[in-house]
Each structure stands twice: as C-alpha cells, then as structure tokens.
Amino acid sequence: MFRKLKDRVPKGGRSSTVGDGSVSTSPAAPALALTALPVRTLKTVRNVALALVGGILLTASATAFAESYNGLKDWAEHHRVTHGWAQAWPLQVDAYLLAGELLLLLAAMCGWPARVRLLGWAISVSGLTVSVACNAGHVGALATPADHLTAAVPPLAAMAGLLVALTAVKH
Question: Which conformational region is residue 32 in: left (phi greater than 0), alpha (psi within -120 to 50 degrees), or beta?
C-alpha cells in the first residue's frame, strides 16, 4: 500500500537517513508532507482537488458569461437592436466563444488532430475578439480606459477558465 520513500524523492534529489531512522531529503528535493501519505489517500486528495478546481471553473465561467451577456445586451440596445432581438443578440456572440472552448477541451481530452484544435482556437479567438470589443464598447465614448478594461474582463475571464481547464487536462 505504501511506496518506498526513495521512490518518492524527485530526480536529482538526495535522501539520507537521520539518526532516528527517518529519511531526510536534500534542499535540491524538499520533502513534502503529502509524500508520506498512502497512495490511496494521495489519489483521493488529487480527485478532491480536481473536483474543486472544476467547480470553481464552472462557477467562474458561468458568472463570466452572465456578465458578458449583460454587457452585450446593453451594447445591442444602444445600437438599435429591438427588444426581443437585443435579448438574443448576446447569445450569437458568446456562443462562438463557448463552442470554440468546448471544441478545444474535447480535442485535448480525446487527442483529436491538430487541425481540429486549430479550428477550435480560431472559433474561440474570433468569438473572444467580438465579445471583448462589444463589452468594452458598450460603456460609451465618455468612459475612462479603466471603465473599458473593466467591461472587457468577463469574456477574458471565460477564456482564462478554458486555459486552466486545458492545462489540467493536459497534465
């Protein structure tokens, strides 16, 4: 059930036995408290951490898309898009960002070819560009640069969530 401690010392690190029989590692390979835990516990900790990261990403992405929707709806209303269409217009923009992100995530998880990943990036970046421009533009011509940057955060946050998810899937 336990792996030997020498198997847990990273490459390049040295371990030595201390007078009380315990094992110490050199500064090149600092010992982590987690390395002394059973493998089953380490897997449980990993799974809980992944679930927490997933929950945080879903919450942050949902919030980012809701904020982006609100900004895009304001933009549409200020550009003479009528009532019902102003409600639907943001979905047309952020749907590309979301679709591209999901395509990239699936491509990473399933090992799809580079051309699919390239298509996913093209869709994501085009959706992100339009979303950022419209979100930043809806605050008006009299807004400060800080106002424009603040309004641009939601779609950028949604894209950042994707990058974190892709990193977790890749490793």
Answer: beta
Tokens 């603040």 belong to residue: 150
CB 76 within 8 A of CB 90: yes
Contacts with 25 (C-beta within 8 Å, 6 or more apart), sequence order? 9, 13, 14, 15, 16, 31
Distance CA 84, CA 18 (A): 74
Helix (H) or strand (E) holding 117: helix 114-137
Cα–Cα dist 135/64, whole Å: 12
What's the first-to-final CA gap in the chain, in angstroms?
24
Per-residue pLDDT of the chain (171 residues; tens, 9 = 90+): 444 444 444 455 444 555 555 555 555 555 556 667 788 898 999 899 989 988 998 899 899 999 999 999 999 999 999 878 999 999 999 998 889 988 998 998 899 999 999 999 999 999 999 999 999 998 988 999 999 999 999 999 988 988 888 787 776
